[in-house]
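User: Quick sanity check before I run a bigger batch. Here is a single chain. Can you write out its predicted 3D structure?
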Amino acid sequence: MAAMGNGIAAAPQLISDLVSANHILYDQGVLDAFGHVSARHDQAPERFLLARNMAPALVTADDVLEFQLDGEPIAAAGRAVYLERFIHGEIYRARPDVMAIVHSHSPAVLPFSTATASPLRALCHMAGFLGTATPVYEIRDFAGDGSDLLITDRRLGASLAQVLGDKSVVLMRGHGSTAVADSLITAVYRAVYTEVNARSQSDALRLGPVNFMTEAEGRSTAQTIEGQAKRAWDLWKKSAEVRCAALAGMSRD
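Assistant: Done. Predicted structure follows.
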């Protein structure tokens, strides 16, 4: 767990919430066998909590590890860690306001990382945090045209954080997206509704010209609705508990 070895004990509730976040994001179709979610350490802001390398739906409290911002685990005890942990460490380093991060490959979002004529932007009021345009990280600009598209070192992690800037979400060309927030509940909310907005935007574009939200509408709706994100969290958590408990039981059989 996050307090082993030279670790600093994180609040049990934070670890529990991080486990729930993994399960919720799987249950909502944002994560599958891949992708990951982290939380900044509540007692040591220069560290973060992230599960070992495993499918999110199967994460338990015992799988949560503590990391330094350079991506090095504090006490992994030989357990494999995610290749792209540098996404988390470098964004936490660049954005002191960020308390949680979700990296996913959610299917409706992915096309917008490659469709240069159709930027992902806020269409529905539940996704006002997207604003009028979502930045796209082009890894070719930083790793050439022969990379595996993964963020596997600090340099690439820092370049992703730079493209994210002060936004809530950054797309990653041909790869997926990364959502950030000032709380774990809000980060999960944003990851889910980025996927919802992407589905709605794809549907709307097939109908014809789209009347998107303005920047001011995005700020206003985000301020109002994200204050109620726990309503969604509580519902999603109940649903995820049932589904992931069944999966965990199957994995023990």
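Residues 12-232 form a domain with the L-fuculose-1-phosphate Aldolase fold (CATH 3.40.225.10).

User: Great, the batch can go ahead then.
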